[in-house]
Amino acid sequence: MVFARMLFKTLLVFALLPLSVWANVGNVEPNKPSENAITWIQQAEAESGVVTYTQDLAMIYEYFSFSPIWHDYRAKDELETQINIISLAGISQEFEWRAVLLRELRVSGDWRAYDVFATDSLLALISYNSQVPLHGKSWFFGTDINDTFPAPTKTQTTNLLMAASRNALYDYAFSLRPETPQYREMAKAIVALQDENTSYWPKFTQRGLIKHGNKLVDSDSLITSLERHGVLSTEEAQRLKLKHVGFYNAVMVQAVKRFQQSHGLKTDGVIGNKTRYWLNKSVDNRIQILALNMERLRLWPTGRDRILLVNIPNYEMELWMDKQLILDSKVVVGRPSRRTPLFTSRLDSVVFNPHWNVPVTIMRKDILPKVSVDNDYLSKHSYTVLSSWSNGEVIPPDSIDWETVTPNNFPYRLQQSPGNFNALGRYKFNTPNGNAIYLHDTPAKGLFNRASRAFSSGCIRVQKAEVLAEVLLDKSGLEMGDYDYYRKTPKTKWVTLRKKISVHTIYQTAWVNEDGEVQFRDDVYDYDARPKRTIDPSASLTASTNQS
To answer: Where is the L,D-TPase catalytic domain (predicted)?
Structure first.
């Protein structure tokens, strides 16, 4: 009976309105919709519950003579997948309710309600995707999307019409994905977690440092957790449980080391607070982190030619040339109180044996308090006092009344001379930007041995700075004899690169590596935190795993 009413309603619409969809395929041009079209959309809204872009929808469906346009199930899957991922990321309440309503309408059997709402949601996705370059650094790093997205442009609506005219909505929706295979691989990881979410995930709560040979209060919980995380085979887990192993044995230690490696932790096999924290991280939270980082992919560059990438929470730098990874290196980034910003710049020159002009914040907070304790601190560390930022006149330290100087009233600037103990080391890589952030060498090499390396005041310290300088200058055509001379001489030397290198700092706390292993990292700047809301972690991502 319900089907009969739906069929009657559909036939009545077709009887009252002309069928001209295929006649218009060659001349796709959006026009102002008629009042009848507006009324038709309002009726669809009454069935679906809500639509946002009434004028655009009326124009689209009038163009298609009020026929359905979502014929291809793959197009439906692709649309719902992308909206589900945004929903799972926890950045937009609008996409959260759209994800739920799309699923409900798809199984309802009401073609008009689903079709119109799907198109409305595609318009929202188009608008969202076009707004990411402007607002993504706010949306994906702490600020929720609170406003309704503006209507797409006329060009975007025309492109949608053309795609629908050719029954190519799947390809059109797919084109809105980030242009990187990471999106598909991370979606697979979410699907795997969703499949596992029905299984028992115990929490390992034993306190204190647990080392090889230590007694385990609840060995089964640890074994099951390691199995669920994919670092211990099911067979090995069953064998350990059957033996009733009551201590932390070598098999478990090796599994924990694999787990630590995939989470950027110190790979020592010791279960401490950080390892325990990640072992007990909920599946829902992991899904949210993956989805959020999938959306961040929309921000980052996809090209791999003459580009230097620094992933802040991974404390790593990569240099790419002609789609080949030329160099990777550990880095030290800004501490949480002095964050390395997300920025884009061009590396235009390398400075050998640089001076360090001490930033005001560091001068006031770090150096001047030490001078008040030790009057010889400046000379011991090769600092020169200069009259101002615009004047390089040298001020003798003994001419300053240090009794009256405070960090806030010090009128001069400080400059550190080149040398083995210069804070910038032997190399500085200039990346002009509004934050005065650059890459450089460092005399504090020991920090690169740490798993967590957020220690700087914002600039990026490069472990392989000498190799980076050599590669950059070699690719820029500098003779190696000149390079050796600049490196060995104590004088400061600026070398301009013939071809600049694009530099991007990014922030990915989850990704899939080249071996297909899911990687998670500590959220060092607390950017992953989201308001607690009820988000359905089971939203289907079927389409995401079907095409690269």
So the answer is: 306-483
